[in-house]
Design a protein that fits this description.
With 257 residues, this protein is an alpha+beta fold. It contains ten helices and eight strands.
């Protein structure tokens, strides 16, 4: 039985059950009056069926197209045939990470490059005092990893930790090399990806020199409005490069502006 057929069958069974329940309620009333009128009955059963089918179709999309987000991301930069899409997704590994769990720790070799389909992660280093310095947050439709460790197979200096329950798609180094061999146009995609990452790193470094902490915070809010409310104030301070106490003062000041 296909997943599509099964879900449609299951939704119909639920609808029948709801219909029978309404009928029994009507028949069991003691004053010989219907529990609900015919108009309300028809509206209720049709609404139930519509709601069930709507949610079933959402489930079908999730089951049948688990890689759609990453395909859309890739196709912003290169065109792919259906066969090339299938080849690419066949080389990806689905990974789930619980909140506060590590995807990578300093000293380990990065075995994958990751694309986030759900959740939020932070990438950071620790100084000698154990203070975290966050280089980036990665959320849905973004990539993360340690490119240097991934490419050179040298131990990483970074920690990658989930700040929410997260789901990712990862490509191993073996499959990465195989992808370039079988679908050469992906070399262009990853070149663009790494160029954008480098440009972002240079801009962030320049901002650390030329902008005040308050200006860096305002710029972060402007650039990442969908992230700022998903991270803790402590993590935000680690990204801006200040203490949590100073971060609290800046947030209060900016909110009053």
């Amino acid at each position: 039985m296909s997943r599509l057929f099964y879900l449609e069958w299951f939704s119909t069974e639920i609808w029948i059950f709801c219909t029978k329940t309404c009928n029994r309620l009507n028949n069991q009333t003691t004053d010989h009056k219907p529990f609900i009128g015919k108009k309300e009955y028809n509206f209720a059963t049709s609404s139930i069926k519509s709601l069930i089918l709507k949610n079933v179709h959402k489930t079908i999309f999730t089951l049948e197209h688990p890689h759609q987000l990453i395909i859309d991301n890739v196709c912003r930069f290169i065109d792919l045939t259906e066969l090339e899409k299938q080849k690419y997704t066949s080389l990806l590994t689905k990974i789930r990470v619980r909140k506060k769990a590590f995807l990578l720790q300093a000293g380990e070799i990065a075995r994958y490059e990751y694309f986030i389909t759900k959740g939020c992660l932070k990438v950071y280093t620790l100084d000698k005092e154990g203070t975290p310095h966050i280089s980036m947050f990665a959320v849905e439709d973004h990539w993360t990893g340690d490119m240097a460790s991934f490419m050179t197979k040298a131990p990483s200096h970074y920690f990658i930790k989930a700040t929410e329950d997260s789901e990712l798609l990862g490509i191993s180094r073996t499959n990465y090399d195989l992808l370039f061999k079988e679908v050469p146009k992906f070399e262009r995609f990853y070149r663009i990806l790494y160029q954008k990452s480098l440009i972002s790193y240079i801009k962030r470094s320049n901002q650390g020199i030329s902008l005040t902490a308050e200006e860096r915070y305002i710029e972060f809010k402007r650039k990442y409005p969908n992230i700022v409310h998903r991270i803790t104030q402590k993590d935000l301070a680690g990204y801006i490069g200040i203490t949590p106490e100073f971060m609290s003062k800046i947030i209060s000041k900016v909110n009053r502006m």
